[in-house]
Design brief:
With 307 residues, the chain is an alpha/beta fold. It has a single domain (4-306), classed as Alpha/Beta hydrolase fold, catalytic domain (Rossmann fold), CATH 3.40.50.1820. It is built from nine helices and eight strands. The protein has helices at residues 4-14, 34-48, 94-108, 127-141, 156-171, 194-197, 208-217, 251-263, 288-306; strands at 55-62, 65-72, 80-84, 111-115, 149-154, 178-182, 240-245, 268-273. An eight-stranded mixed beta sheet has the order 1-2-4-3-5-6-7-8, sandwiched between helices. Helix 8 (251-263) links the parallel strand 7 and strand 8. It is globular. The two termini are 34 Å apart. The mean pLDDT is 96.
């Protein structure tokens, strides 16, 4: 049973519309204003981005992309987390995610690379996955061994983590030591049952999974394997950890991906958390479940990079 603290905090998030003096939750529709949304997320991030004192943030250029090294104290050398941020494919950046990525870096004592990939609708598929492949190749150019790299992401970044692993394998590029996917959508048709059954249980903005994914899909076929990684041949991938809550709209997508990966010979560890919502581990340490999930994920990172 979920902890009292998690139920309280998740309940407040679900009712966030009340803090804006709105009686009903926002519903994302065709009138959605992407720039306005990005600005609101950026403004909120500037107010809440409190990086721990023992974390160093180093701005860098990753080819043509802005990036940052998130470096914890006493970080292990020559090992790196390549973090792919979430944001519904339409938002997110180093600004919005450095505080979250710092938690993974501190918990694993491994530095992380965070970078600003191109966003939809200005840059629909395949821009984001191409940028993720570019970032990975950049790490190899810097001298990092593939097995000393772990890919990690949440939400849209979790989808891109899996899609990037598939793309790297398809391109014949040496694969990383592992991948972590937190609350991914793995079939961008968004037709899984949990998109309906969990619509009132999750914290994702209503209808965002239709509008935002449509921006990212653009004119492409959502069945494409680099777009919907569940549609790919999942054999020959590195070990992956998938984390999801039972109250998520992405529950079925995550479970189905893990099942198919195992059937096709890929080592897939599935963590399903009772009563938890979208991307809950990045809320650590606000409630026990988030803190425990973050710890388990960091343990997986260390295990993969140690091996």
């Amino acid at each position: 049973m979920p902890s009292l603290r998690s139920r309280l905090i998740i309940g407040l998030i679900k009712r966030r519309h009340l803090f804006k003096f709105r009686l009903k939750p926002e519903v994302i529709d065709e009138n959605f204003q992407v720039e306005k949304f990005r600005k609101s997320v950026d403004d909120a991030s500037r107010k809440t981005n409190r990086i721990p004192k023992d974390i160093k943030v180093v701005p860098i250029k990753v080819k043509d992309m802005y990036g940052e090294w998130i470096v914890p104290k006493n970080a292990l050398r020559q090992k790196v987390i390549m973090y792919i941020h979430g944001g519904g494919f339409i938002s997110g950046s180093c600004l919005t995610h450095r505080v979250h990525v710092a938690k993974f870096a501190v918990g694993s004592k491994i530095k992380a690379l965070l970078f600003d990939y191109r966003l939809a609708p200005e840059y629909p598929y395949p821009a984001a996955v191409e940028d993720c492949v570019t970032a990975y190749l950049w790490l190899l150019e810097q001298g990092y061994s593939p097995l000393n790299i772990v890919l990690c992401g949440e939400s849209a970044g979790a989808t891109l983590t899996l899609a990037t692993l598939v793309a790297l394998r398809d391109k014949g590029i040496a694969l990383p030591g592992g991948g972590i996917s937190i609350s991914p959508v793995t079939d961008l048709t968004c037709s899984a049952k949990s998109f309906t059954t969990n619509v009132k249980n999750d914290i994702a903005p209503l209808n965002s999974w239709i509008i935002w994914t449509k921006y990212y899909i653009g004119d492409s076929d959502p069945e494409l394997p680099w777009l919907s990684p569940q549609k790919a041949d999942l054999g020959g991938l590195p070990p992956v950890l998938l984390c999801v809550g039972t109250n998520e709209i992405h529950l079925d997508d995550t479970v189905n991906f893990a099942k198919k990966a195992k059937e096709q010979g890929t080592e897939a560890t599935l963590m399903v958390w009772e009563g938890m919502v979208h991307a809950f581990p990045i809320m650590s340490p606000l409630f026990p479940e988030a803190k425990k999930a973050m710890g388990d994920i960091c343990s997986f990172i260390k295990q993969r990079l140690d091996s």
